[in-house]
Task: structure prediction
Amino acid sequence: INLGYRAAESLWRTAIPGDTNLDNTVDLADFAAFAAAWKAGDCDGSNTCRKADIDQSGGVDYNDLRILAENWLSGIVH
Result:
């Protein structure tokens, strides 16, 4: 189980910043995950919040939104 988790974690870490669903694009599903985590602000250990915390600051904040937005257009047009 740990090996599988590390493999998944490795995939997430190499994903496009803002690609929370690992489909190699930054799309509406990624924005939905980000928006759901934004309201909570501080990550509580949930997978969605952790992935939405793009800058790994411990919270989902304006800098995460900036990074997501920077990758949004390239994600949508693919």
Notes: DSSP finds four helices and no strands in the chain. Residues 62-77 form the longest helix (16 residues).
